[in-house]
Every structure is written in structure tokens, then in C-alpha cells.
Design goal:
Helix content: 25-40%
Radius of gyration: 22 Å
Strand content: 15-25%
Strand order of the largest sheet: 15-12-14-13-17-18-16
Number of strands: 18
Shape: globular
CATH topology of one domain: Alpha-Beta Plaits
Structural class: alpha+beta
CATH class of one domain: Alpha Beta
Number of helices: 13
Distance between the termini: 26 Å
């Protein structure tokens, strides 16, 4: 192996796990500090036909950022680069930059990097690009793909190339998927090349944002409200997030444990469900959000809530950055807690089993209800269900306490995904396929589509050394 690859057992063990609950031990770990070092490592690996799996902060829930054998290529140590061009509204950044730091650098210039994965303080730009990360604001702004202007990539040969979007409004030259090479790498999970730098598009920072927790007595009423909010002209949501009663319970517990005290008592009643919404407020001529804008937004949401059987007296409003940070912390507590619960069962062969399927948003209530029936008939505890209901995209988290329960849960998930695909949905809306979902991808993708993907993989990685086990 290259001199840049460490084989010390303790170092290898440090990079053997991610958020998936799996544990794979690499043969070596490379921690390059420059693009040239990445290229050198890849060239050496190609010469020796050694597999290489790129990784950032290893927050993948699908096992995409770990590898059994081969080299784990950690990009955390790449020379830091966060260069904001205020006039052009772009930021040039290294793949190892933490997403939250990029967002704060943009905000300091009055600009917004819109994608907002929950783990933004623990994930890198390269990881976000590799899995096409999204988040709550996807409802308004879309996922990472729409915001990537250019990528610098180390190919499987070790060659360093840069691809930029053409910026054309019309183009009919050849097949659509060949028009823009940037799109080859966004969401490719490290299988086609190693993204080492990126140029990201920024937007004007909103004047201010109002958030609301809107409680409901049951799941059906909450999900009907989500549909009504998407189709209403009285409100303009940038996110519509759903929390079932189990997720609400986790959020309440997390707030109480932080010593919030009386403030936590204003959270949704433990037996209820909740929809969390945000709306951006138009800025006045002085640059601040106008009071009338705030009042109109609040009136719009409360009015809609009243017509949809919400527990209006228990609505909680988040106004200002500090308050919105509390709301983000509440949401992040759900996946963080489920990760901890899953980790507690690894020794007995169990783990967290998470899904991120999506259906057309009007059918979400039907899909979740059917998934619960499937779990009930199988004798499996109901999933903690939360997430991006406005996009028809929930997260369902199950906890398998041992290997036998893991098999039962995976059968439930497969039945659920078959139903989802029949509804016109997808088996993965956000976290990618990685290693955990490869057996579910054929439920959605035709053999012909698979062959086309394999042809692209063969062309860009003929030796098959990049991220083996991811997607295929």
C-alpha cells in the first residue's frame, strides 16, 4: 500500500463504523490533506487493484461510508476551503468542510446554502454531494443536486477533473443524462469518482423565519393537514415535518433532559402527533421582517389549523434564530435517540433499521397506515415515524433487539417497500442505497435501468475499485 495508507489496528478500528449500525474493518485508512494526495492514493490503488471507499464524517445510515477490507479514504482532513463570492452568490469549498460551517460562512455574507440535512453539524460537503442530501427545507428548495454548480473529482484512474454546469436553458445534444457530468457524481455514493472540491450555489438569506409546532389528536388528521398546507394559498411553507406519537415522546424527553423546565411543558401532549412548519417572511425596505408579515403568516397557519382539527390552544411558535435552533434540536433528537437505541443491541445481532421511502404526498397517510398494518400483522413493534411529510417522505425507524427480530423487521420493510413502489413511490428518497438497501433497489429499478447504470460504472471505474458494495 501507499505510504499515505495507515494499517495500525487502532486507526482502522476508528473508521470501522458509521450511523448504519454495521461495522466493517478496512485493511487500511488514508487521511489525505490535499487533492494531490487523494490522486496519489487512487493511482496506487488502481495499480494494485485495491478497493477504495471515500468517506466524510461517516454519518451514513446505509453503510455507504465503511468498507470490509480495502482502503477507507477519509476526506475529513483535506485542506480547509470555504471561499464565499458574495457577488456571484457561490461558495467554493473542499469536500471535507463541515456543512454547518459552510452555511454559517454564507450567512455572514447575507446568503443561504439551502439544503439542511439534520446532521449538518456532523457531515461534510463531500458526503452531502455523494448521497444528494436534503432535509426539511427540501419542500421549497430541493435537494443538494440543484445547488451544485461544479465539482472537482478524482477519477478511478487518479486523474483530477473539474466539471461545471453549462447554465443553458435549452440543450438537445445527445442523451439527457450525458448533458451534465456534474449530475453523474451527485448521489453516486463514491462509486464513480471521489469529489474533492465543489462550487455551490447560494441564495439570498431570508429576512426572518417563523416556525410552528401544530399538534393533532391522531396521525390521519396530522397528515391531512400536511396535504391542506401544501395546497393552500393562505400559507407558504418551506418545510412540513411530521412527528408521530413515538417521535413526539422522544422529543419531549430530550427537551426535559436538557433542563428546559417550564418551556418544555409547552411541547405537544405526549399522546398527540405533531406537524412542524416553517415559513419565510418577506423583508421590509429596512431589511427587517415587517410586523404585518409576521401577523399574516401566523394568522394563516392558525386559521388553517383551526379548520383541520388541530389542537390550536397547544400550538407553539418559534420566532427568531435562537428559537428555531431549539426546534432543530428537537427534531435532531429523534434520529439521534434511535441511533443510540439501535447501538445498544449490536452485541446481540440487532440494530436500528431505518427507511426513507417516499410516495406522492397525497398518498402518504394511506402508505403509513398500510405500513403499520404490515408491522402489526407481523407482530413487530410500530416504527417511530417522522420526517418530510410535505414531500411524501417519512423516516420509519425500527429497533431490532437481536438477529431474529432483525430478519422479521426486514421482511416487514420489504413488504412496505413493495407497497410503496406500487403507489408510484421510491425505496430511497434521501439517504441513498449504500450497502444496506442494495437488495431493495430491484423492487423499483428495471433490469434495463440496472444495465445502463452498470455501463456507466464500467466506463468510469473499469476495475471496480471505487466504493465496492455501494448501490450494486
Amino acid at each position: 500500500m501507499s505510504a499515505l495508507v495507515e494499517t495500525d489496528p487502532d486507526v482502522r478500528a476508528m473508521f470501522a463504523a458509521d450511523a448504519s449500525g454495521l461495522r466493517y474493518l478496512p485493511d487500511g485508512v488514508a487521511r489525505p490533506e490535499s487533492v494531490d494526495e487523494v490522486a496519489e492514493i487512487i493511482k496506487g490503488a488502481a495499480s494494485a487493484r485495491t478497493p477504495v471507499t471515500p468517506a466524510g464524517m461517516q454519518t451514513s445510515t446505509t453503510g455507504a461510508s465503511i468498507t470490509e477490507g480495502g482502503i477507507l479514504l477519509s476526506l475529513r482532513g483535506l485542506t480547509p476551503l470555504i471561499d464565499v463570492d458574495r457577488e456571484a452568490r457561490i461558495v467554493r469549498t473542499s469536500a471535507g468542510a463541515i456543512l454547518g460551517e459552510v452555511k454559517r460562512a454564507a450567512a455572514a455574507e447575507g446568503l443561504l446554502f439551502a439544503p439542511d440535512p439534520t446532521s449538518e453539524e456532523e457531515s461534510t460537503v463531500g458526503g452531502a454531494i455523494a448521497c444528494n442530501a436534503s432535509g426539511a427545507r427540501t419542500l421549497k428548495y430541493g435537494a443538494t443536486r440543484e445547488h451544485v454548480r461544479a465539482v472537482t473529482v478524482v477519477l478511478a484512474t487518479g486523474d483530477v477533473v473539474r466539471y461545471s454546469r453549462m447554465g443553458l436553458e435549452k440543450n438537445t445534444a445527445g442523451y439527457a443524462f450525458a448533458h451534465d457530468p456534474v449530475d453523474w457524481f451527485v448521489g453516486s455514493e463514491g462509486t464513480l469518482g471521489v469529489v474533492v472540491e465543489a462550487e455551490l450555489e447560494l441564495l439570498p438569506l431570508p429576512g426572518s423565519v417563523i416556525g410552528l409546532e401544530i399538534p393533532f389528536a391522531n396521525e390521519s388528521e396530522a397528515l391531512a393537514f400536511v396535504v391542506a398546507a401544501r395546497e393552500s394559498t393562505a400559507v407558504v411553507p418551506r418545510c412540513l415535518e411530521y412527528f408521530d406519537q413515538f417521535a413526539v415522546g422522544i422529543a419531549r424527553g430530550a427537551e426535559a433532559s436538557r433542563g428546559v423546565g417550564a418551556h418544555s411543558a409547552s411541547l405537544v401532549p405526549a399522546a398527540g402527533t405533531m406537524v412542524y412548519v416553517e415559513q419565510e417572511l418577506a423583508a421590509s425596505s429596512a431589511g427587517e421582517s415587517s410586523g404585518t408579515g409576521y401577523d399574516a403568516a401566523l394568522d394563516g397557519w392558525l386559521g388553517l389549523a383551526e379548520t383541520r382539527q388541530a389542537r390550536v390552544d397547544d400550538v407553539r411558535v418559534f420566532d427568531g434564530e435562537q428559537a428555531l435552533a431549539v426546534a432543530r434540536r428537537i427534531r435532531h433528537a429523534v434520529p439521534a435517540t434511535m441511533n443510540e437505541r439501535g447501538a445498544g443491541h449490536r452485541s446481540s445481532g440487532g440494530r436500528k433499521v431505518s427507511t426513507d421511502w417516499a410516495v406522492p404526498y397525497r398518498r402518504l397517510n394511506e402508505a403509513i397506515s398500510t405500513s403499520r398494518d404490515i408491522a402489526r400483522k407481523a407482530g413487530i413493534a410500530q416504527a417511530v415515524t417522522y420526517g418530510h411529510a410535505g414531500n411524501g417522505h417519512p423516516h420509519q425507524n425500527y429497533i431490532a433487539r437481536d438477529a431474529e427480530e432483525l430478519e422479521a423487521i426486514e421482511r416487514v420493510v420489504e413488504q412496505t417497500l413493495r407497497m410503496v413502489v406500487k403507489m408510484g413511490g421510491t425505496v430511497s428518497a434521501e439517504h441513498g442505497i449504500g450497502k444496506l438497501k442494495t437488495h431493495w433497489l430491484p423492487l423499483q429499478m428495471s433490469p434495463l435501468a440496472f444495465r445502463v447504470m452498470r455501463a456507466v460504472k464500467q466506463e468510469l471505474d473499469p476495475l471496480g475499485i471505487l466504493a465496492p458494495g455501494n448501490i450494486f
